[in-house]
Amino acid sequence: MHVLPLIGGKVEEVKKHSHCLAFSSSGPQSHTYYISFDSFTEHLRWQRQAAKMVSQRISSVDLSCCSLEELPPNLFYSQDLTHLNLKQNFLSPSRGLSELQRFSKLRSLNLSNNHLGEFPEAVCDIPTLTEVNLSCNYLTCVPSAVGAMHNLQIFLLDGNSVRTLPPELGDLQQLGYLGLSFNQFGQLPPVLHRLVAMERLCMAGNNLSCLDLPRLRHVRAKQVDLRLNKIQTVVPEEAELLCHVTHLDLRDNQLQQLDASLFPRLEVLHCERNRLSSLSAGGALLKGLYASSNEISQLEVYPVPGNLTYMDVSRNRLESLPDWVCESKKLEVLDVSHNHICELPIGLFCSSSLRKLLLGHNWLRRLPERLERMQIEVLDLQHNQLLELPSNLFLKADSLRCLNASANKLESLPPSSLSEESQSILQELYLTNNRLTEKCVPLLTGHTHLRVLHLAYNHLQTFPASKMAKLEQLEEVDLSGNQLKAVPTTILSCRRMHTLVAHSNCIQVFPEVMQLMEMKCVDLSCNELSEITLPENLPPKLQELDLTGNPRLSLDHKTLELLNNIRCFRIDQSPASFSVSEGPGAPAVWSHGYTEASGVKNKLCVAALSVNNFRESREALYGVFDGDRNVEVPYLLQCTMGDVLAEELHKTKSEEDYMTNTFLVMQRKLGTAGQKLGGSAALCHIKHDPMDPGGCFTLTAANVGKCQAILCRDGKPLPLSVIHNVGVAEEYQRVRQHKAIVTEDNKVNGVTDSTRIMGYSFLYPSVIPRPHVQTVALTPQDEFFILGSRGLWDSVSPGEAVEAVRNVPDALAAAKKLCTLAQGYGCTDSLSAVVVQLNVSEDCCCCCCQPPSPGPRALRPAPQRGDPRAARPHATAAADALPMPSSCSEISSEVSASEMSSEVGSTASDDPPQGGLLHEPHPGGGASGGAESGRGLPAVGAALLRAARRLPGRVVPPAALQRSLRKRAGQRGRGAHRWRLLQRQPRGGGGGHPLPARPASGPGLPAAPPPPPPRPRRGAEPGAAASRTGGWAGGGAVPPQGRAGQGEGTAAETPPPWAGAGERLGGPAREEPQPDRGGGRRPPKSKGATSPPRPSPTPTTSSSSRQSWRRR
């Protein structure tokens, strides 16, 4: 095939031949092609099209990210170029850049990210240039020849190592924007005062320690950006001399006090993330005030800011709002959340301009009763101490569209109108976590435009059917965590309903929601359903149905066939399929539950991992992965990270080493999926040394990004994770060393706000995957730990999360509650939560050193060097890694996990497995939202197993020894388990094994009923496999030997650039056989794809015990 560039060439008709055209290319070595057409019509069409092409002139060329080492010759065919983009290549000043002078009309030139090393002086010989970008090129100086570019208007030198500017730069009389951010300037360059046309000066990320206003007065720039410096003091100057500054950005410095009234014409002030205790500003022309994340207790603006439209003073220490706030006639958005405000000004709700008012996370007990001309559209009152809302709130706030009053103490609601006709346009109402009863429901019927209603975790016992019928516009309803026994049948009046969430109730009758054609998601987990009635055809848009945690629910074969058509169908397995290979009397050590929730557009960008019997020993592995807005990375981590960890455990026993290597190897396994996409990850590994009779269980946590884990110890949150971002001094210095740019939203190169995260390999070495690792020894005071995605911790504080689930007996119900609370507080991101309940006995900790007690702080930024708060923090800057997840979300039974690796990562290797993650799932866990429990070996069995390993002669295989022990153990353990299942709390969930309740203090507690007498086993060998929903019981019970289906291998990947940087990447990647993880959700496989058959774990396993009630 020949490609002929026609632009600038010519097309001619060949008269000697019929229907023939001659096409000639441009350039010094032009070629001519003669083409004959079958008809005159085709001939004419080609001639007209070609004539248009040859008449065009190239004015803009983009050759960015093309790995160019020199300029291509074809680039010079057109001398009419005006815009040339050559960023992110490998060009050098000595190889062809001097040829750029041939473009006599060039106006814009982008040479950023080429690692030039020295300034290309040939650029100075192009007099037509108006814009030059030389950012991130390791430049150390600017030559005096720059003064020859008299037409230059924009000059960007960000991300270099420049310390001084030549005096000749002052000759650029048309220069309006000078970018000097992230260089090595210690003060404002003197030459700046000669740039008379400059309007914008950017010097973020330099080494300025003092804001010298006398020097700044000579700089005529209107917009001054000095964020991310080290400014601690301000040298004052007379206000009249600073009239030219209209926009001042002092974010992320070290200021303790700021008097911005020295800038009399200031319009926008940014001073977030300093240490300000007091702030003063002039209000004559002020339009925007941004001062969040400080310690401000005193705020003064004079005169009254009549032009102020946006004010953000959230996360400070304000105890009251100044009166001038009510006098700002143009204020539209006011954010004073996360302060200490106890009372609001009387006239705050009388503003005719205020549209959005955020008052959450304060100490408000009541709101002003005076409501006049109120135009507020969004009102956030969550996390206060309100007992009631103003009685005339809905009568006066006729523009209110969204109200969030969650996490208060509300017992009643104000009426929507005084008559049957209501003028309310309220569309979203969030009342989660209050004290409302069914008496409040009739007051909601006046909001006829209501689309979203959250009443989770209140005291509702019924929802009147007649009232539900009047809310015809409802689309999303959350009634979870109440005492409802039924959902009213009048829900059929809500024809637009697409989401019904009613988990953790006492619902016994399946609602008739399947007759609503718009229904997409139904969550009725953790209820008391015994049967369901379905129409002949399910709603065509139904994507999710969760019925886990309904132990009495039984479905016939026809119903199961119908429900298998749902993309994500979750249900517990029948008790008859429970494993019979559990050790009798073995105490439950851990029990887990998990859940996931889609974000906007029903896109699930999170995944979870749960392996209760990791490596067929007394270990467990849990993880949460968050891709922010991408699905590929979290699911690849979910399917692969567990196997990588299993392999690393064979190589080293050091917690820091094997966890760090797991992340680094996983980074390489992400392959092409991790080049421009990324995701957060948090792993928790429970381990017990079988060779140490008195050893304790240890919990090792590792994380990158914003997925985090916390441990509840004595009712207090103990952080196991840290957040790495540019707000951490060590992380910021590392990013600076690699000449990366931090944009105004605190993102590295404008991509991610995490400096350590999986994927985003194109940002290496500024962004790395090396995790923070922390190990603690588990004690009887450790009650549970929580892993959560970014959206969970952005909405729910660690302290609130611990208090919310501490008294929830079931792990599944606890995980469900966390996600529901986050959604009720306004979170719209994808959510994932894993709750692992612990029951560590004293004898497991007799030889352990007491771990550090939890500090008063919860999730925090990375500790500084020498910080004693972390038990064993390991957070250093180094290479990246690829985590391999095994999720508790639903993984398709038609596609193996290794196939998932090859489809998403496209570089996973096909080396043979190393073992370690072959296990059979526990029967009781639900799918996404299942609960599972862990069981330890009997003490005698563990001792015999250790003794057998020391014998010099015939060594008893561990699995065979354990099966023998279990066979001699009798039936007592099995009967006790079934008795516990029947005694589970009515609102517990997940079909798992709830841990024994902790003893409560106080008189009058009823004694626990004795266990039932042993019953014989029926039709199962001690080791028969159970259902594939969820992992095997953890804490010591070893499952039967078996292996899941292993996908086909894929081609070996190309090592990433960091592979040779001194970091251990574990050699060639190996694809492990994937365990039968219960309930993992994954993207659907392409049509016609199949997976290899899954062999039975033992010859005695029946096919029914392996059946899954979920369609992939």
Automatic annotation (TrEMBL):
Its main location: cytoplasm. Residues 1069-1079 have a biased composition (Basic and acidic residues). It catalyses: O-phospho-L-threonyl-[protein] + H2O = L-threonyl-[protein] + phosphate. It is a peripheral membrane protein. This is protein-serine/threonine phosphatase. The keyword Iron does not apply. Its EC number is 3.1.3.16. Residues 964-981 have a biased composition (Basic residues). Pfam families: LRR_1 (PF00560), LRR_6 (PF13516), LRR_8 (PF13855), PP2C (PF00481). One of its GO terms (molecular function) is protein serine/threonine phosphatase activity. One of its GO terms (cellular component) is cytoplasm. Residues 857-935, 958-1112 are annotated as: Disordered. Residues 923-933 have a biased composition (Gly residues). It is an enzyme of class 3 (hydrolase). The keyword Oxidoreductase does not apply. Residues 873-918, 994-1005, 1099-1112 have a biased composition (Low complexity). InterPro entries: Leu-rich_rpt (IPR001611), Leu-rich_rpt_typical-subtyp (IPR003591), LRR_dom_sf (IPR032675), LRR_domain-containing (IPR050216), PPM-type-like_dom_sf (IPR036457), PPM-type_phosphatase-like_dom (IPR001932). Keywords: Cytoplasm, Hydrolase, Leucine-rich repeat, Manganese, Membrane, Metal-binding, Nucleus, Phosphoprotein, Protein phosphatase, Repeat. The lineage of its organism: Eukaryota, Metazoa, Chordata, Craniata, Vertebrata. Residues 591-838 form the PPM-type phosphatase domain. Its cofactor is Mn(2+). It is found in: Cytoplasm; Membrane; Nucleus.
